[in-house]
Amino acid sequence: MSSILSYFQQPRGHFWQWAEEGRFVEWYNGNTIGYREELIRVLRAVAEQGLPPLAPVLLLLAACADTAPAAPGQAPVLDGLLQDLPPGNDDPKPQVLRRCLVQAVGFLVVVRGLPPTLRTGEPKLHLFREVFVGQAPQIQANLASNILDLWDSGRLDTKLVQSANQLTRRTVLQELDCLAQAFHRFPTTEQLALRLRTGLDQLPASLPTPEPPAVPDQPLSLFEQLAQDQRTTGLVNLAQHLVAALHVPMHTHGASDHPLGGVADITNRGNFDRLLLSELAHDDLSLTARLVNNEALYLRREEPPRPQARPRVVLLDTTLRLWGTPRVFGLAAALAWAYHAQLPRTRAALTAYSLGGQASTPLDLDSFEGVVQALGCLDPALHCGPALAALGLDQPAAAGTDYLLITDAEAAQQPALSQRLAAAQPGLRYLLTVSRAGALELFEYQNNHRTLLSTSRYDLDELLTARRPRRTVPALPPLVGPAFLKCVPAPLYFPTVSLRLSGRNALFHPRLGGLAVTDTRRVLYWPERSTGARELLPTIEAGTYYFGSDAETEAYILVSGPGLLRVYCFSLRKGSAELIDLADELDEPEQVIKVAFKDNCYYVRRGGSTLLVDCQQRAVLGRRDAAFPYHHPVGLLPEFGSFKRFINNGYSVFHRISNISVNGAGELLVDGYALRLKNQSLPTTHQLQFLSRIDSDSNPSPRAKATAVDVAPAEASNASLVRRFAWPDGSEAVVDTRGLLHLRSADASVPELTVLLVIGQPTAAWAANGIVTGSSYFTGHHPAQQLAPSNFYQQYLQRFTAPLV
User: pTM, whole model, 2 decimals?
Assistant: First the structure.
């Protein structure tokens, strides 16, 4: 009760007062500042980080409504406030109070300069969170919601409008300092607008020019070379499908040359179905004894002869009917035939020719340049009959070579070419026909008869325009920066920072744990309730997220945006991520309309077609005709109550650090919180914790204050490293937005340290030599190298702070 009264009661002599029984708040001269409903909405928005003093909240409300001073010199209400306050024993110096007032009013001017879209509606709530984040709250976060509920009920309105204690200059300084700190962070409207729009204090620098990829040790195969070139990607995609479907018969001698299917020998090893019938004449005991002692006799079947390797020649028709799509279809079939000729079991010498109207030209199907050149071989003749006749296939000498002719299906039925085919039967063994509709037929000539061996049909539009999804692995941690960031996986579990759960940024499964994308677009994974988070991805693209999981070991996130379509596949046990880039599957003006996840596959409805992506196979299974499961849920939507209980351990995190120093006792101070050993019953059970003045009995004053400087140029590309503090001896403290504080001592014998910026619960720390300490929630249950907090504090933290005192 005392907390809510002290927070909401109007002090005597302040610039604001309640009006109409607390329904709105106004300046003491009678002008309206804001209504109660608007004030409760703003306070609830910042409640999760604790409630700041009420006076700066009201001033910021006035600035958003254009009722605050328009310039530092136009603040008569606030100037009169300072002049009318009675003097006190602990009053700050007048120049200090005046400078704080000028800076606070300057920040109100910065806010007034924002466009209305950033200081009204929902963006206004984001503005309040950014202004007061990281500042010491007047009401802690664990009490804020209850106090706001009690005030909103109206049961205490009669007491709230009563005047409280007399306002002091010390209280005014503390209230105005909240806005003065914000002015130091955002001295201009442009910087504040950039922060509100992007979450960044400055735009990232341009990326350095990437180094050319290293030359692989093993040379690429022909198909791999063709797949890397945009001109031949569709060709090799079709050829690979033909390789899997095309069956090339093996050549053997005549059936009477070898006793195929007969018995070759008798042996004492074999299967029971090959026992000699005479063995069954023995009684059961005798037969068993013969089988056990390997005395029983078996038949050994005749092995088929090895196929005879005969030279192969591919004849590719390049006349008029093969122009266009059939030309690519025929060349893909020739590549598939050449691939089979290079297999170890059927290896044979292969040559290729293009058949024009009158002559043949050699082709090179073994090199990338030769395949590209083959695509340009065209002849305007109506058919290739004269060129086929010129090869002399009607002579008996041609019978020792397997000739294959690839031509158009309709051309093979024309009388002019069919007569040439009949004359070439002594040497021509195979005929392969293709059509524009995607039909492929393979014939074999034997004994003056043509036999159909196989037929198949392909969707040429899909295969020839198919684009393989690009699969990459996110970049490794940078080689520069704090030592903690170079460890994979991270030595400590991360605290939860900048996360507002919704149906669009989280996935929760009782067996797998929780997965979420934070406001800063980090992908965090909580494997169990008793530990913090693992960072699966330091940053993910902005867009709409669709979650999925195989409910065993993997989770998936599909990211959709303008010109963007990607699937991230996360191995939860390994902590690794694999990216499938599907941007080439989006054709303007097609846009993603709807997404569903079913049977480990994403169904992406775009325009009039459906894209089907198999997450386990990392492959596109269909691009047009897949049936979209409209009545199936989009993904695994979390139960937010269960998820919040799963990841909530009762702690808060420093969001914005403004002061770092070391006090007379050699303790590290972060915004007024001292990193100390919280005493327990035994020294071995002490806990490392950030304690405020309220939570601690002794509070030596700061002595060695660090100066805020720019982040080192080598680390500037890492957006998480936002501020660096330096001491005169060269020691540094680097603030990491992920809830980390990296410490580097000027003494090279002291390893780099990383401390989690956790408030309200025991924290954890790590040294660059691999030692961890602190709460098992952040270190894990069984770390490889661990020290008791008291020992770690003495051996590492005090060695860092001692030279600074």
Answer: 0.48
